[in-house]
Amino acid sequence: MLRCPAPVVWTWPALAIPVLAVAARQVAARSPGVYRQSVSVFSGHVDVVVTGLSWRRAVVVEQGRWQFRRTDWKPHGDGVRNIRTVRVVEPGLIFDTHTDRGGGSARQSESHEVMEKHTYFEYEEFGWHKYRTFSAQGDGPADVRWPECALGSDQRISERREAYRAKFSPGGEDSGDEYAAELDEETWRTLKVGLRCRLKVGALSGEVKQVTPTAAKNDGRRSGPAGRRRGSSR
């Protein structure tokens, strides 16, 4: 009698974890610095030194102006002025469609010109439009500031942007390995060039997820997450 082997049933822990572990080891081979201290399937830690800091702040300035508009509807509100009603007579076409009953179901169309009355509204509408972006940048916490910009009576600041970045290296400035992250301002201000830190890095993505100054570990303080982008480069 021919015996069939018993079917093999794969479960998630048995199948997924080894596959992820293999993928993690492959990433480790390409970026050995990430796994110098400890390795898990989803993240690793690496001891580094801060090699560079930078910041950038920008303000977007808009300028208001009145623009001519012409619409089929009458506008309302404080942002419109000089409304004028315009009535015109313009030529138009009317199409007549009928069925040719004598020859079956064939449909024929005819058109003729007529004069139609239309009403429009002409006016000026006030709107804000991007005028210019002013920016300032630097490489340390001491000179962080918003850029100076003199606003006219018809201008306003519509948006403020800020970014704080840090670079790290396991072996200092002479090392070939490098990590970069965009941080929130509070975390970024706790760093300085030469400070030793521990990075939490995604094992598969290589993203810097957390920055912890090594000196802060003993007194219970811990830095926040690595900002909005959490990007890293090597």
**Percent of sequence in beta strands:** over 45%
Relative helix content:
10-25%
Helix-strand pattern, N to C?
HEEEEEEHEE
Cα end-to-end separation: 62 Å
| Main beta-sheet annotation | 8 strands, antiparallel
Give me the count of strands: 8
Per the principal axes of the C-alpha atoms, what is the gross shape? elongated
Average pLDDT level: 76
- Coarse structural class: mainly beta
Quaternary state of this entry equals: single chain
Task: Show unreliable segments.
Answer: 1-40, 218-222, 227-234
Which radius of gyration do the C-alpha atoms yield?
A: 34 Å
Number of helices: 2
In summary, what is this structure?
By secondary structure, the chain is mainly beta. The protein has helices at 12-30, 185-189; strands at 38-39, 43-71, 80-99, 107-138, 155-169, 179-183, 196-202, 208-213.
Explain how this protein is built.
The chain is mostly beta strands. It has helices at residues 12-30, 185-189, and strands spanning 38-39, 43-71, 80-99, 107-138, 155-169, 179-183, 196-202, 208-213. Strands 1, 2, 3, 4, 5, 6, 7 and 8 form an 8-stranded antiparallel sheet that branches. The longest helix has 19 residues, at 12-30. The protein is elongated, with a radius of gyration of 34 Å. The two termini are 62 Å apart. 13% of the residues are buried.
